[in-house]
């Protein structure tokens, strides 16, 4: 038997926390407005922030008391009825078809070396047959006027690219 909730509903604790935050925030705000203290602005802002935070408790209380009939929850939580007639047969066929298509696409990616479940989606894609590139860099001191050249080579050493470095007077 389902319990019957009266008055404040199911989330009574959230209701009373919201009321307490409202009363406390309003009291601090009014103290800041009407009492002559040098930190009145702090009290006004603190009271307004506490009243704003009470909205969290009001939302919890309200959303905890929303009642949804089980007939509307059928699709959301998997409580599908078996005898819905023609529409049930069509939707079941569409679900089976989409399940087969998505699993077929997923398995074809795995066979062809495409994206797999191992990838996390972070970072650049990993290339399985990449060659290492060695880069040589030269440093210059401000006293030197002669530009140095640096040559970067690919792992085999057969390809090179020449870079020149120029410095400008400071």
In brief:
This protein has 170 residues and is mostly helical. Helices cover 46% and strands 8% of the residues.
Description:
With 170 residues, this protein is mostly helical. Among the domains are: 12-64; 133-164, no CATH class. 46% of the residues lie in helices and 8% in strands. It has helices spanning 12-34, 40-64, 74-77, 86-111; strands at 133-135, 149-154, 160-164. A 3-stranded antiparallel sheet has the order 1-2-3, with no helix packed on it. Helix 1 packs antiparallel against helix 2 (40-64). The protein is flat. The mean pLDDT is 76.
Question: Can you tag this structure with a few keywords?
Answer:
170 residues, flat, mainly alpha
Largest sheet: 3 strands, antiparallel
The Rg value, from CA coordinates, equals 35 Å
Overall pLDDT score: 76
Work out the oligomeric state of the chains in this entry: single chain
**Structural class, from secondary structure content?**
mainly alpha
For the termini, the CA-CA separation is 86 Å
- Total number of helical segments? 4
The strands making up the biggest β-sheet line up spatially as 1-2-3
Shape: flat
Total strands: 3
Point out poorly predicted stretches. Answer: none
Give the helices and strands as they follow along the chain: HHHHEEE
Helicity range of the residues?
Answer: 40-55%
Strand content: 5-15%
């Amino acid at each position: 038997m389902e319990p019957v909730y009266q008055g404040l509903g199911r989330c009574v604790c959230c209701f009373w926390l919201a009321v307490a935050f409202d009363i406390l925030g309003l009291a601090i705000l009014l103290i800041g407005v009407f009492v002559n203290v040098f930190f009145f602005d702090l009290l006004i802002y603190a009271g307004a922030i506490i009243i704003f935070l009470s909205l969290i408790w009001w939302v919890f209380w309200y959303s905890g008391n929303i009642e949804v009939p089980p007939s509307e929850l059928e699709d959301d939580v998997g409580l599908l009825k078996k005898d819905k007639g023609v529409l049930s047969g069509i939707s079941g066929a569409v679900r089976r078809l989409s399940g087969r298509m998505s699993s077929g696409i997923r398995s074809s990616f795995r066979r062809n070396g495409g994206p797999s479940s191992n990838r996390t989606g972070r970072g650049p894609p990993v290339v399985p047959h990449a060659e290492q590139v060695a880069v040589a860099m030269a440093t210059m001191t401000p006293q030197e006027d002669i530009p140095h050249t640096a040559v970067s080579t690919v792992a085999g050493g057969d390809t090179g690219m020449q870079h020149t470095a120029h410095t400008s007077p400071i």
